[in-house]
Hints:
By secondary structure, the protein is an all-beta fold. Helix content is 0%, strand content 54%. It contains no helices and seven strands. The chain starts with 5 loop residues before the first strand and ends in a 5-residue tail after the last strand.
Amino acid sequence: MPPPGAFIKAGNRLYVGGNHEIVAYDLPLPFDGPMAVTWRHKVDGTVFSLVAADDKLFASTLEGGLFCFSADRQPLPAPAALAPLPGSSTPTRASESP
């Protein structure tokens, strides 16, 4: 794995984000010897920031990507439809309308 761009400890794991990849290691890390990779996931871009909340791992990239990882395999809700604000030709999410 290339040099990391972000670290976070969440629960009993250390998550490390880098170029096009996030890797997790179980804690505690071994005193000597190699660290065993527990989980690995490819992402588009260079991981800049990692946040853990609500049993999820969020990763943002320098390229503007935002990724959410969860052990819960529930389907994601459909995104809200885009609609222009009154007096605007720029679409915004309907849930953002005043």
